[in-house]
């Protein structure tokens, strides 16, 4: 899919990238989450977000919560069993 550069608002894209980085940083501040080594795979330009992580010892599952960009709070979630397969991870 080609994107015409004249239609891209680069200031907006930069703000979204900063927000995503801050959100990912906050994700790591939860209990035990700092050891998860969460990675956001960004090799494709697409609307989905692909996450992988190393599970914490003793964890049975994880709840991944996301929201529409127009929403202030997480509105959708999915429980992911441990261990997630590294090659599959999570898409949402």
Summarize the structure.
The chain is α+β, with helices and mostly antiparallel strands and 92 residues long. The chain is built from 1 helix and 5 strands, in the order H-E-E-E-E-E.
Ranges with pLDDT <50 over ≥5 residues? Answer: none
> How many β-strand stretches?
5
Question: Given the C-alpha coordinates, what overall shape results?
Answer: elongated
SSE string, helices as H and strands as E: HEEEEE
Coarse structural class: alpha+beta
Helicity, in percent?
10-25%
Integer average pLDDT: 76
Q: Characterize the largest beta sheet: strand count, sense, and whether it forms a barrel.
A: 3 strands, antiparallel
- The strands making up the biggest β-sheet line up spatially as 1-2-5
Radius of gyration: 15 Å
Distance between the termini: 20 Å
Q: How many structurally independent domains? A: 1
State the helix count. Answer: 1
Beta content comes to 15-25%
What does the model show?
- The protein has 92 residues and is α+β, with helices and mostly antiparallel strands.
- The chain has one domain (9-91).
- It is built from one helix and five strands; from the N terminus they run H-E-E-E-E-E.
- The protein has a three-stranded antiparallel beta sheet with strand order 1-2-5, with no helix packed on it. Strands 3-4 form a two-stranded antiparallel sheet.
- Strand 1 and strand 2 form a beta hairpin.
- The chain is elongated, with a radius of gyration of 15 Å.
- The chain starts with 9 loop residues before the first helix and ends with a strand.
- The relative contact order is 0.14.
């Amino acid at each position: 899919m080609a994107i015409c550069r004249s239609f891209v608002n680069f200031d907006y894209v930069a703000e979204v990238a900063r927000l995503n980085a801050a959100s990912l940083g906050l994700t790591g501040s939860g209990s035990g989450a700092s050891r998860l080594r969460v990675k956001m795979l960004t090799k494709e330009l697409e609307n989905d977000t692909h996450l992988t992580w190393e599970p914490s010892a003793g964890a049975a599952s994880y709840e991944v919560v996301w929201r529409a960009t127009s929403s202030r709070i997480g509105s959708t979630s999915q429980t992911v069993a441990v261990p997630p397969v590294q090659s599959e991870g999570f898409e949402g």
